[in-house]
Design a protein that fits this description.
By secondary structure, the protein is mainly alpha-helical. It contains 18 helices and eleven strands. It folds into two domains: 226 residues, 3-Layer(aba) Sandwich (Rossmann fold), CATH 3.40.50.620; 148 residues, Arc Repressor Mutant, subunit A. 42% of the residues lie in helices and 10% in strands. It starts with a strand and ends with a helix. Bound molecules: glutamic acid.
Length: 465
């Protein structure tokens, strides 16, 4: 039988990391088995719906490469795939479930106690109330004896006494179904074989199973996933300011790195940690999903992001970072800038502060010329800059780093200076920053001869005063 999984997000805002991981595991389980991955939009809680959220779901799945085989705009014959367009279907099945004894009309106002008094109403009483248009909900009817059990692929054997289950609402008074009903109907009608979702649904799964049983339907395989936490005890939560997928993208993380990293949150794939989507598909094994909460570690993600950046070819890296150079108005050697940034960059948004000296150096700060390790101070820096100026003026191959370095080293030696005693003052003269991507040669190369000289003249002036 073909494996079919579904990702069933509610359009309530951002793509949380936990949700995206659920989507990814749904996708991996399906694709590892040459199955189908279905997208279903669960928008039955109209009050929680956020406008634009559905488009955001499409966009994130598209961007991350989690392409669905069936879903909105991709009809596989079992739609509609948006729950608010399936209300007739739910009503039809709710009526059937009432006939089968698995549900009942409830006319109570407000919440009910343990046992719903409406289960005691006679057929005549029910008909009469319906004829009078008394508002109602449809509740699940739970047998008061017996146990319901099932096998979860991650959490193992689960068993509950039926009397501990509440007779929850299946169809609300506004005619919309609750998740507790719609998920069962849709998973059945859409031929879902493997239900993959967060473990917050583990405890209500017995109730869903009672519905499957009442209809005489085959139950799916259940794969409940552990939560993604920020520490030992707290779940990641957007409300507490934890990053969503979109936030991470805005912070300069690559989509490939994010997908790779979240795949590892709650599942092991062997020793190799850097894995493409295809690698993940090949290696995925339900048996390796862990029961315990995964902890989201931004430093690990940053490490992974760096690794992805380093693994690109220079040309790929350059194309990727070009849009992040827009603030640079100087006509510089952008490819050299990319070359210098690639081994140092952690995330794309860092480019801005790493390159903020390019348009103009920082304001003069004499203290930066003092560097213990380089054995420099403002006095010997001024001397070194004056001495090296003719070299900078006469040298014409600023784009030949190797030759430039050789010239510098020779110059230092000839003048009885340590390399750092020339390099450091030049680097500071060009930037007025103590931390820069690349050293004097690379920065001079990026800026070009004219700009380099302008800055060195200015630094000499500043140091003289
Ligand atoms: N709409 C539910 C949610 O977003 C989906 C749960 C499920 O996958 O069944 O939590």
């Amino acid at each position: 039988m073909k494996i079919r999984t579904r990702f069933a997000p509610s359009p309530t805002g951002y793509m949380h990391i936990g949700n995206l991981r659920t989507a990814l595991y749904c996708y991996l389980i399906a694709k590892h088995n040459n199955g189908d991955f279905i997208l279903r939009i669960e928008d039955t809680d109209q009050q929680r719906e956020v406008s634009g959220a559905i488009d955001m779901i499409y966009q994130v799945l598209e961007e991350t490469g989690l392409h669905y085989d069936e879903g909105p705009h991709k009809d596989g014959g079992l739609g509609p795939y948006i729950q608010s367009q399936r209300l007739n279907i739910y009503h039809q099945y709710a009526k059937k479930l009432i006939e089968l004894g698995g549900a009942h009309y409830c006319f109570c106002e407000g919440d009910i106690e343990d046992i719903d008094p409406c289960t005691q109403l006679s057929q005549e009483e029910i008909q009469e109330k319906l004829l009078q248009n008394t508002p109602y909900v449809i509740r699940q009817t739970i047998p008061q004896d017996g146990i319901t059990s099932f096998q979860d692929e991650v959490y193992g054997y689960i068993e509950v006494e039926n009397q501990t289950l509440n007779e929850g609402i299946l169809i609300k008074s506004d005619g919309y179904p609750t998740y507790n009903f719609a998920n069962v109907i849709d998973d059945h009608l859409m031929n879902i074989t493997h239900v993959v979702r967060g473990n917050e649904y583990l405890s209500s799964t017995p109730k869903y199973n009672l519905i499957y049983e009442a209809f005489g339907w085959k139950k799916p395989t259940y794969i409940h996933l552990p939560p993604v936490n920020k520490d030992e005890t707290h779940k990641l939560s957007k409300r507490d300011g934890d990053a969503s997928y979109q936030d991470l993208r805005e912070q300069g993380y690559l989509k490939e790195a994010i997908i790779n990293y979240i795949a590892l949150l709650g599942c092991s794939f062997g020793e190799d940690e850097i894995l493409s989507l295809d690698d993940l598909i090949n290696k995925f094994d339900i048996k390796h999903i862990s029961k315990s909460p995964a902890i989201f570690d931004i430093e690990k993600l940053t490490w992974m992001n760096e690794t992805y950046l380093r693994n690109l070819s220079l040309e790929e890296f350059h194309q990727l970072v070009l849009p992040y150079y827009q603030h640079i108005t100087k006509d510089i050697d952008f490819l050299e800038l990319s070359l210098v940034l690639q081994p140092r960059l952690e995330k794309l948004t860092d480019i801005k502060y790493m390159t903020d000296f390019i348009n103009e150096p920082y304001p003069f700060d004499i203290s930066i010329y003092t560097h213990k390790k380089m054995k420099t101070n403002p006095e010997n820096s001024l001397k070194a800059l004056k001495l090296v100026l003719p070299l900078l003026e006469e040298f014409n191959e600023y784009n030949n780093d190797e030759k430039f370095v050789t010239e510098f080293i020779k110059f230092a030696k000839d003048n009885g200076l340590k390399n750092g005693q020339v390099m450091w003052p030049v680097r500071v003269a060009l930037t007025n920053k103590s931390l820069t991507p690349g050293g004097a040669i690379e920065i001079a190369h990026i800026l070009g001869k004219e700009e380099t000289l302008r800055r060195v003249y200015k630094a000499i002036d500043d140091l003289k005063n």
